[in-house]
Input
Amino acid sequence: MTPSRIRTLVFVLIFIGGLIVGFFGLRTLRAFREFGGHRPPPAPSAADEEPGQIDTDVNLIREWMTIPFISKTYHIPANVLFDALGVPANKNRGKSLKRLNKEYFPRAEGVVLEKIKAAVLANQPQQMQENPQIPIVAVTPTFAP
Output
């Protein structure tokens, strides 16, 4: 190979490497913007101190949360929350409330968050009993001859 061909090959390889670095760098930047930074853990609530208490403070719901996360946290079926929004569940399980708001209610900011808060308040589960009364049945062994 001649020196000019080697120089051209090196230039092409460096250019391809730069494209790859640029492509994945932009993807990383986009993911970082979507993530929005690391948030501190939530403050302990009364539900953490008393066993059997379910946290129902809807002011803790944020736009970065997803419907399945809220469903699990507040012990409400996810389909109830999706029905409250009027949004199909199958394609939207992994989307944040902010993203759902952008897709389904682009002209009204914060509508999804308010509807979810209202649905959680309307469907609060009963507080679990601390000492449920479980009947104790005496079992006597019987021997069959």
Remarks:
- The two ends are 97 Å apart (CA to CA).
- The chain has a mean pLDDT of 81.
- Residues 1-37 form one domain.
- Residues 52 and 130 are 6 Å apart (CA to CA).
